[in-house]
Specification:
The chain is an all-alpha fold and about 220 residues long. It contains ten helices and no strands. It has helices at about 10-40, 45-50, 55-60, 65-80, 90-110, 110-120, 130-150, 160-175, 180-185, 195-210. Helix 1 crosses helix 2 and helix 5 runs antiparallel to helix 10 (about 195-210).
Length: about 220
């Protein structure tokens, strides 16, 4: 006898469960990969951190390498999404400020993801290099053309559009990648909400001034 076809509500419920479990796994994987590196991380440790059976990890991601690759790809995707505000029609100051604030928020809220990515780059980007040379490069070049047009139109100070992105990445991600150093200098065990706000306003103000803008809006 053929098996009954699941109803639409059942399919939707299964999809929601899968989505929730994958989200739990990715958050746990960010933390474990950040602390132990790819070689030191185990699927068992990630499963324990996620509060799920180890079999679930292999069901959703197949292998540790696939899970690691997904963490890197999702991190890059989330970092690039805020660049959508950088369009020719947009107000340059508003667009750049919005992007900086989004990058700062991600670094402060998801520091483990940033550290996993940084560690991958420090080891020569063996997994993520195709994404860097492909999706990342194409997007940055496209957005750099927009910034270059803003410069030509006199809507902002002359800056190197590509290196502006490098500056934003370096300034924002340091609060995740070097959080221990930042906290040690500030005499704190972790960045308080007040210090996070202070850091965000500093980075936004410095970069906006370099772009020829006034105070943050």
């Amino acid at each position: 006898m053929p098996l009954p076809i699941p109803s639409a509500p059942e399919d939707a419920s299964k999809g929601q469960i899968r989505q929730a479990n994958e989200a739990l796994i990715l958050v746990a994987a960010e933390r474990i990969f950040a602390g132990a590196g790819f070689a030191g991380a185990t699927m068992a440790a990630i499963a324990e951190a996620a509060g799920l059976p180890k079999a679930n990890l292999h069901y959703y991601f197949g292998s540790k390498q696939e899970l690691y690759r997904t963490v890197l790809a999702e991190t890059l995707k989330d970092w690039l999404a805020p660049t959508d505000v950088i369009t020719v029609e947009a107000d340059p100051q508003t667009a750049i400020e919005t992007y900086i604030r989004a990058k700062m928020a991600m670094s402060l809220q998801r520091p483990h993801a940033s550290r996993v990515f940084a560690n991958e780059l420090l080891h020569g980007a063996p997994i993520v290099k195709p994404l860097l040379a492909g999706d990342l490069s194409k997007l940055v070049q496209a957005k750099a053309k927009v910034i270059a047009q803003w410069v030509r139109e006199g809507r902002m100070a002359p800056v190197d559009p590509v290196h502006l992105f490098f500056t934003i990445w370096a300034a924002t991600q340091t609060y995740a990648d070097f959080e221990v150093q930042v906290c040690a200098v500030l005499g704190q065990t972790e960045l308080t909400d007040q210090e996070q706000a202070r850091a965000t306003e500093h980075v936004v103000s410095m970069i906006l001034r370099g772009c020829g803008f006034g105070q943050a809006r």
